[in-house]
Structure formats: C-alpha cells, structure tokens
Task: structure prediction
Amino acid sequence: MDGFIHQIFSGIATGGIYASVALALVMIYQSTHHVNFAQGEMATFSTFIAYTLIQAGVPYWVALAATFVISFAMGVAIERIFLRPMANAPELSSVGVFIGLLLIYTSVSGWIFGYTIKTFPTPFDTGHPMLGGYVSGHELGATAVTLVMLVSIYAFFRFTRLGLAMRAAAYNPVSSRLVGVRVGWMLALGWGLAAGIGSIAGCMVAPIVFLDPNMMAGILLYAFAGALLGGITNPLGAVLGGFAVGVIENIGGAYLVGTELKLTMALVIIIAVLTVKPSGLLGKTVQSRV
Amino acid sequence: MTTLTEARSVRTGMPTLDVKDLHAAYGLIRVLHGISFVVDAGGITALLGANGAGKTTTLRAVCGMVRTEGQIQLNGTRIEGRPTEDIVRQGVAHVPDGRGTFMELTVEENMRLGSYTRYDKDVEGDRERMFGYFPKLKERYRQQAGTLSGGEQQMLAIARALLLRPKLLLLDEPSFGLAPLIVKGIFEIMQRINVEEKVSILLVEQNASLALKIADRAYLLETGRIVFSGPAAEIRQDENIRRSYLGY
Result:
C-alpha cells in the first residue's frame, strides 16, 4: 500500500512536468492549429542554458528566472523569423519547419553543450523524504514550482488586458484585428510564453532524468498524450491530462508493464483517446464543413 | 442632447471618409472597379445593392482587410495600404457581417476588448452608456457571448465597436437574420448613436427602405460600380430606382 501511495505522489510530481509541456503545446495549438514538435527540444536547450549559468556560479533561482527570460525571447524570435513567413503556407510546410527546428535544436544542444549525460542541481532538500516518506524533497518542490507557474499563467490570461488580447487573437484573429489587437505579436508572445513554460519544466525534470540533448524526447510524448487526454483545445484540460498521464504512467509502470515499457503507455493513451474520444475529456468537438 | 438637424447642420467641409477610385480584388477576381464615395462628418451614408454587388468588400477595403488600389482618406489622412490594426487605431470601428462575436468569451470580455486600445479614464463611463443603449447587455454581462441571441449579439457588436470611440462606424447588414421588431429597435438606436456619440456611419444594408430612412446620403452599387448616388430622400422618392434596384 505504501508503495502504491508513493507511486501516486511521484506520478503527480512528473505529471506536473507533463502538464507544463502539455500547456505549452496547447497554447501554440490554439492559435495556430499546429503541434510544435520542437517544444521539448526547445526546453532541453533552455535547460542547458540554466545549467551553464548555474555552473558559472549564478544562484539557482536567479539562473531559473534568467533562463525563463532568455527562453521567452528565443520563442518570440523563432515565431517572428521561422513561423511568420509560414502564416499562409500549407499545413505540411509548418510541420516541416517544426521537424527542422527539432533537429536543429537537438544538434545545436549537443554541439554546444556535449552529449555526455550531466547531473542537474536541485535547490530542494533531497536528503530527507517528505510527507511520511512518500515523496522526495525535489518532487515536492518541483510540484510546487509547477503549480505556482500554472496558477500565474491562469491569472495572466484571466485577469490582464494582454492576456485577454492573446486569448482573443487565438479564438478569432479577424475580430481581434478589428478591435486593434496586433495579432501577429500576440502569436509571437504565445510562442515566448510556451518556450518559457517549457524551460521551467525542463529545469524541474532534469534532476530526475539527467540532462542530455534528448532529455525531453520521451517527455514530449507523455505531454502530448496528456494534452490529447484532457482535450487539445482546452488549456485546463491539457493540464489535468498531464497530471493524469503522470499518475497512470507511474502506476502502470510499477504494477502492469514494468519500467521498460512505460513509454508505450503514452502511445496507448494517444491511440485510445483518438479512437474513443478524439476531442479529449474537456475539449470541444471541432466540426468542419466538407 | 442635440437634435438630428442640429447635428447635421454643424457639418464642416471635410468628410469623415473620402474614397476615390477604389479598386479591390480577391486574388484574380476583381470585385470593385473604381468606386468613389464620401461619408460626411456626423452623417450616415448608406451603401445599397444586391448580393455580390461589392458592399461588404467596400467595408473590408476601408479597413485594409483586402488588397486595394485607389485613395482612402479618414479626416484628410490617407489610410489605404495600412494594416487593419493601425486603421482601427486611427478611429475606424467595423461591425463585420456575422457580427464577429468572440463566442468563447463573456459579454464583459467582449466589451473589454472593444476598449482594448484605450487607456483613458472614460472607459467605465462609456461602458455604462452602452448599457443605456442596450440594457440587455447588462443583464447578460457575465454570460458567454456565444449563448446570446442574434439580436443581442448585434447589440454587443455595436457596443464593442463604439467602445473604441471611433470617428467612423462601419456597419455590415445589422438587420441580417433578425426579427423585424428587433431590427426596428436597433435602427432607432443607431440614429441616436450617430448623434449622441458624434460618430459618422457607413451603413451597408440589403433592406434598402430601412437604410434610406436613417441615411442622409446613399450610393447604389451594382457589380462593383456605383450606378446611382444622391441624398437619401431623393432616392426614396425615385420610383424607377426603387423598382429596378431596390425591389420595394
């Protein structure tokens, strides 16, 4: 029983990471109707930046904040430089750009920072198990950081003028222009925010899975499964889906399929959702005229 | 409160909108073939014509939503070729066909988006005034806009446009799909808005008799060309035009 509860707790901890990356995916999906395959690799690159800063002696939290800002700027730049010219291009062109970005990011990460696996520091106390031994200090801390980030992002979208404009631009770009919203910039800010969220998720997961250029490859799959499970058109659904996938993955890995086959669970979830309920648990059904 | 006649008599020489030799095309399909028209300061200009005459395209052209050639002046400033967002920020509010409601957002958020470009202190007061014109919006304030009826969405679209504090209001078929009684109410309020908000209006309407009642100037469009123009009262009197073009 203790083991079971432990699995649930650490499932929630990794679920928070999936939830963050799922949210990043959904934010870009909502405004562009594309899944950014490079989201994970962008996060890995950001994590390397944080690693470099921390190695250079920058305090952990300052490094984390700086990484968020740098990643945000890189996200904006990528939208402006690579995605904007694709605005009216056919779907496959955008997919091509995403795959290209994925390859470029992985290679550049390896080229600059090397392929050797690195241990990534955590600011949390890892010596003593917390909550009666069910969860490590890092898992608890990472979950807290993730939750604070998710709540801040919710508050930003719900209560600020800019957040409202970004939502409007995603829902209805034509009407948004007609009230004076600069839709192109809103898309770029969305990319920046998604990249920033990814960078925090990367830094939170790196102490668990260790840092190397392919660190996020598997995580992106889980996040994608989470986004689909919750509904890729619904940010809240994606977050809940991310947490759910974390728990399912951990329990399934411990009791059903074993740790080696964990990743298959993500694929099973993806296929199950697409066959049974393609809109996800909270997503809305997309109807299109044929 | 100024009366209609007083408001019209203070009209100055410069029109709010002055369009000269406007061409527009969707890809290779040319829709407008050199039309010229004005909207007087404080006036209501009606753009009439059958389906496919180019009325909606004309409004879209003024907002920079289609590629155009020709000259468009807003209060003497050239605005053609500018991005839509910039034209809107210059004071052009467009209530598009289909009303452009943000269905997923609440009425409140729709109205907040209307004043998105404004940072002045009068926004609150303006919002209250909109509730004066359209009390229904106050009742529905926290509701998702997609749940509103067609008439309520039209009211929301007009309120959202006015919250921009525009110099020029473009209205595309405000009567579309609405019950006659609701249309009558909306047209009465538009007349009030024209005077009280000091906004010039360019009105596109299929319902010509209704449009000619509130307009002071009208243009008749046929397949992208203006075939007749003049004071609204004159067109209303003209049997031939009424029968051959307006169908009532």
Observations:
- Chain A has a mean pLDDT of 90.
- Chain A touches chain B at residues 161, 164-165, 167-168, 171-172, 174-183 (CB under 8 Å).
